[in-house]
Amino acid sequence: MAETETGFWGLFAAIAAEEGDRVYARFDGRAITFAMLDRMSASVAAGLHGLGVGRGDRVAVMLRNSPGALALIFALARAGMVWVPVNAQLRGEGLRHVLAHAEPRVVIADAELLPRIAECGAGLAGVPIVVAGGDGVHRLEPMLDAGASCDAAPPAPAELFSIIYTSGTTGPAKGVMVTHRMLRLAGEGALLVAAARDGDVLFVWEPLYHIGGAQLVVLPLRRRVVLAMVG
What we know:
Layout: H1 8-18, E1 23-27, E2 30-33, H2 34-50, E3 58-62, H3 67-79, E4 82-85, H4 92-102, E5 106-110, H5 114-119, E6 129-132, E7 138-139, H6 140-145, E8 160-165, E9 175-179, H7 180-194, E10 201-204, H8 211-214, H9 219-222, E11 226-229
Helix pairs in contact: 1-2, 2-3
């Protein structure tokens, strides 16, 4: 496959296999290596498989930036699942619309956001909810640390990776379909704009649930840069 026809997951997998100790990001100063992300993402992918989530299924993710939120992106990518990031500021009708329209197979959310999800009226009966940072039948933290493996076939560049909803300024939010290739190209565009060079440390304050933050996950895959992330 030509270099220009490769999605971002293959780039990550190659670095994780060859340079696992290389630092991908620092979150509030804590180093996160490629090997750590590889391990956590495989474990989460296996945990989601255990909940009945399969290739092509949509996973709604309402998380603020965290190491777990970062690992989850790579978990969904490697398993061929569809990441539906949900703005953590949404509530009421705006939140109901996104969750109802996306029809997720599972929802993953910060514990503090669960009341908003319950109150918005999205009709999620029977949809498992994985809780981050709190109690619940299904919890994200054990999934991250389970050490399970995921042997899913690598996704093709043209496969759907994400549905990112617009802000809904002029009407109901619309889901923008983003393939694995599209996210890689968005990240490479950000590299050009930032004029990033090997050795740079790039401050990431943008939320991962917005394309402004999502596209930055590609940067350490194309340059030897480190993301300095904050919650």
